[in-house]
């Protein structure tokens, strides 16, 4: 998963949006249990913002681990989820980059066994709305390194965990991003979106 793309490939038909929950100290790894979608009542303004993002999304892109986590959690929320996320995830076309995943076991899922960068270049060249990648830290790092990400959306949680994998990979080339949106919610979570300059 270490390929890079040539000049001009970032200017494709569909935007790739990387959406991540992140701690105040920049960690996206949730193994410490700092983010739990079912732990607290969401701010209605955040639910509305998520709905806006989901309405623009025509495909969901995931790595194997995040896909398995989602598959084990969200379908079980059908009927009780008031955020619309469960219904959206059932309906949206899902693309998983994995060399080891067998039957995905979730309708509307395509497993891509080839090179991650080539897969995403092909997906971006299609027509339709945004492609969203969330979680999937290894895949996200590949996409950032290959300069395939058009927008980064972060939901910053007011916690510090001290260790864990971060949003941007170590050793990457310096890049510039311009802020395009920011919101703060009653839960203390702050949303910020950045476009590639």
UniProtKB/TrEMBL annotation:
Pfam families: RibD_C. Residues 16-190 form the Bacterial bifunctional deaminase-reductase C-terminal domain. It comes from the Bacteria. PANTHER family: BIFUNCTIONAL DEAMINASE-REDUCTASE DOMAIN PROTEIN, DIHYDROFOLATE REDUCTASE FAMILY PROTEIN (AFU_ORTHOLOGUE AFUA_8G06820). This is Dihydrofolate reductase family protein. It comes from Kineococcus gynurae. The lineage of its organism: Bacteria, Bacillati, Actinomycetota, Actinomycetes, Kineosporiales.
């Amino acid at each position: 998963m270490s390929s890079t793309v040539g000049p001009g490939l970032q200017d494709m038909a569909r935007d790739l949006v990387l959406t991540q929950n992140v701690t105040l100290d920049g960690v996206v790894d949730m193994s410490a249990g700092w983010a739990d979608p079912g732990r607290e009542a969401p701010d209605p303004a955040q639910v509305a913002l998520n709905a806006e993002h989901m309405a623009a999304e025509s495909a969901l892109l995931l790595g194997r681990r995040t896909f398995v986590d989602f598959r084990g959690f969200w379908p079980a929320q059908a009927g009780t989820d008031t955020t619309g996320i469960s219904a959206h995830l059932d309906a949206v076309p899902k693309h998983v980059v994995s060399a080891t995943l067998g039957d995905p076991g979730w309708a509307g899922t395509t497993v891509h066994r080839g090179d991650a960068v080539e897969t995403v270049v092909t997906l971006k060249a299609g027509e339709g709305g945004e492609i969203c990648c969330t979680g999937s830290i290894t895949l996200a790092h590949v996409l950032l390194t290959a300069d395939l990400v058009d927008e980064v959306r972060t939901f910053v949680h007011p916690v510090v965990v001290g260790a864990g994998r971060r949003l941007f990979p170590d050793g990457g080339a310096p890049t510039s991003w311009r802020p395009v949106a920011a919101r703060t919610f009653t839960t203390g979570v702050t949303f910020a979106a950045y476009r590639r300059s």
